[in-house]
Amino acid sequence: MSERLGLSAEDLAPTEAVLAEHGNMSSVTVLFVLDEILRTRRPRPGERGVLGAFGPGFGPSSRCSEFL
Predict the structure, then answer these.
(1) Which helix (H) or strand (E) holds 25?
(2) Nearest C-alpha neighbor of 38 from the set 63, 10, 5, 67
(3) What b/e string do you get for 13-52 counting C-beta neighbours within 10 Å, with b at 16 or more?
(4) CA atoms in the 13 A half-sphere facing the CB of 52
(5) Where are the alpha helices (DSSP H) in 6-59?
(6) Taking Cα atoms as reference points, which of 35, 6, 5, 33 lies closest to residue 17?
(7) pLDDT by residue, tens only, the chain of 68 residues
(8) Cα–Cα dist 61/53, whole Å
(9) Is 59 helix (H, G, I), strand (E, B) or coil?
């Protein structure tokens, strides 16, 4: 999926850091990844991002955001 979306290893680093430290916490993992991104490599104003998660019972959730 990362290749299809054109994501680099740097793009995936916040996700990998959270998973290494906390493991998969179901849908709340995405909030930990967002926190990691905002603390370590603040996106520039106008940059966009997509967050996706699967919760209990395989309930999908996603959001497209523009950073301010």
Answers:
(1) none
(2) 67
(3) ebbeebeeeeeeeeeebbebbbebbeeeeeeeeeeeeeee
(4) 5
(5) 9-22, 29-40
(6) 33
(7) 889 989 999 999 999 999 999 998 888 898 999 999 999 998 999 999 888 888 777 778 788 889 98
(8) 5
(9) strand
